């Protein structure tokens, strides 16, 4: 009888322990859930304060805004943007015009674009640039340079593809125009050079020697009448055409049978008393390439009238 009662007591005690353990587990799980949501709420509040949607506040043990809040805000926006929630990001920030909020958004876009470029996702980088510009934020010139430098390192049409993707909406820095135009000069890509020339006009990026020089050399050889227009505009902008540049333009004009532009360059040189013997020799070859042997022969008299002595090279022509 006593043995039976002892066994019942043991069972009751054991059952009580199990019930208590279950309750403790439930309470612990609830506490963890509460802490999780509380911590998430604090992080969201910090992010919203940093983005300018809430007034500044001090969250005590959870640190004042400006410490971790800045990093969390940027991480939240970048995570939303990288997971295809760009519409939500724009909706949240549509009315945010505070400098702090704009700065966070610029940083978020910049980080995302640079990440896509480094990862070789150039199309995604272009799309982020367009979104950034659409938000009224200027894309940093350094990022545009990084995009085209990355494009130059992959397949041959990547530069053209990136250029077309931007659609003239994003401003290209002078250094970018210069880099791409010298590439065109090296590969004699006249079609892309004309596109760059039109965009440079639209974005008011002419006026720099590093843009004028490759354009002049390209159009001089291609026979494009645009060469003369650019040469005159270069002078109006206060740029000086050196004897070396003029000699190169004359030689390329001869190769492209662009006699009209060659005469424009010669008028420039004569007006500045820059007709040297090397210039005369280059012009003679240009005339010969264009089949104007009569003009080439007339140069002998002009050389003598200028007080110069024709050398064996000129006599050989």
- Unreliable residue runs: 57-70
**Average of per-residue pLDDT values:** 80
Radius of gyration from the alpha-carbon trace, in angstroms: 36 Å
Count every helix, treating DSSP H or I runs of 4 or more residues as helices. 16
The counted number of beta strands is 0
**Terminal Cα span:** 136 Å
Oligomer: single chain
**What's the order of the H and E elements?**
HHHHHHHHHHHHHHHH
User: What is the beta-strand fraction?
Assistant: under 5%
Inertia-based shape: rod-shaped
Helix/strand structural class? mainly alpha
Describe this entry's structure for a reader:
This protein is mostly helical. 74% of the residues lie in helices and 0% in strands. It is built from 16 helices and no strands. It starts with a helix and ends with a helix.
Q: Which helices and strands occur, and which strands form pairs?
A:
Blueprint lengths: L1 H50 L16 H15 L3 H8 L5 H20 L3 H13 L6 H12 L5 H9 L7 H14 L2 H13 L6 H14 L3 H11 L6 H13 L3 H13 L5 H13 L3 H13 L6 H5 L1
Summarize the structure.
By secondary structure, the protein is mostly helical. 74% of the residues lie in helices and 0% in strands. The longest helix is centred in the N-terminal third of the chain and has 50 residues, at 2-51.
